[in-house]
Specification:
Blueprint: H1 10-22, E1 29-32, E2 46-49, E3 54-57, H2 68-84, E4 87-89, E5 92-94, H3 98-104, H4 110-128
Parallel strand pairs: 1-3
Antiparallel strand pairs: 2-3, 4-5
The structure holds zinc ion.
Length: 129
């Protein structure tokens, strides 16, 4: 488990979000780490593995010039995967359901995070893709 990055402490971020949005009821391990299923063409910034009950956040985000609300939005998203779970719709696994997306928008800086991502994604991928 690698919690302390150079700039961000994931456990601290997790605990804060857990307290603020979930009444402290969520129990998940969190670590910096690459997801083994990463494709070559893009970075998955975060992942939640149900089997191991662990959130992995991509180490490329542990940088001074990444706003903390962006990391928080990634962690929050992965926490929702545990909260919402997988829905089976017409026999297919659905994870980013409308319910999920509604909950995702409750994050205080959702808009800021999406806008930041949009204008910085190329730069992020250039460095780490
Ligand atoms: Zn997701």
């Amino acid at each position: 488990m690698n919690i302390n990055g150079r700039f961000f402490n994931l456990k601290e971020i997790f605990d804060r979000l857990n307290h603020e949005y979930f009444g402290g009821t969520i129990s998940i391990k969190i670590t910096w780490g690459r997801n083994v299923r990463n494709g070559r063409r893009y970075i998955r910034f975060g992942s939640y593995t149900e089997k191991d009950n662990i959130i992995r956040i991509h180490p490329s985000l542990d940088r001074q010039d990444i706003p903390s609300y962006f990391i928080e939005s990634i962690v929050y998203h992965e926490m929702l995967h545990k909260v919402v779970g997988v829905r089976i719709v017409n026999g297919r696994r659905r994870i980013h359901t409308p319910e999920f997306k509604n909950m995702e928008r409750r994050f205080k800086y959702y808009k800021e995070a999406r806008e930041w991502e949009k204008s910085n994604i190329r730069r992020l991928l250039k460095h780490y893709g």
